[in-house]
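For the sake of transparency, this paper describes our internal protein records without simplification. The tokens are whole numbers drawn from a learned vocabulary of local backbone shapes. One such record is reproduced below, unchanged from the form in which we store it.

. . .
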Amino acid sequence: MDIDWGWIGDHTGTLRDHALIHVRLALLPVLFGLLISLPAGVACRRWRWLYPPLLTVSNLLYAIPSLALFMVFIQYTGLSQSTVMIPLTLYSLSVLIPNVVDGLGSVSEPVRQAATAMGFGPLRRLLRVELPIAVPIVIAGVRVAAVSSISLVAIGQLVGQGGLGYDIIRGYQLQFQTQIVAASVLIVVLALVTDAILVTVQRLLTPWARARGTS
């Protein structure tokens, strides 16, 4: 396969702009999904009967092909970024909600009782004790959701909003392999960089884990 490095050099700015759009379309839905999943996970831990139907609904949504879901939303949101971001937000819930529930479930009952004995109310105990302990499991879910979202955004170009997906489809239309390869490599790089950043965030949020590992 011959790569036209001159074309890549001439289009560095365009590829950068498409990559920034790609990141925004991919990561905002993960953020929105996390904002939904945190209170949903807390509610599922509080009312256990809520978890099975909520998990079933999120898994059913994830089972719908992305292009089909884009076509459903295009009737309401048109050819806009919302047509891509809303389905990706729904997809992220199938990963994030179970991880939030499992993360909160990893907090042992003696730890909860100790926090209560120290005068922590339910909200303070959640924010100061339970969520910090749940961070590794929650971040693990965010990593999966983020990488999945970065890969799925490219399909959004079929409804006019795809970031680097534009270069993949345009390269296919022109039978120009360089454009396809350049966009594909950038998508992989974005996924790797995002994953590395999330690992760093996890380490910053769990300094006790680093101290334990060092000792």
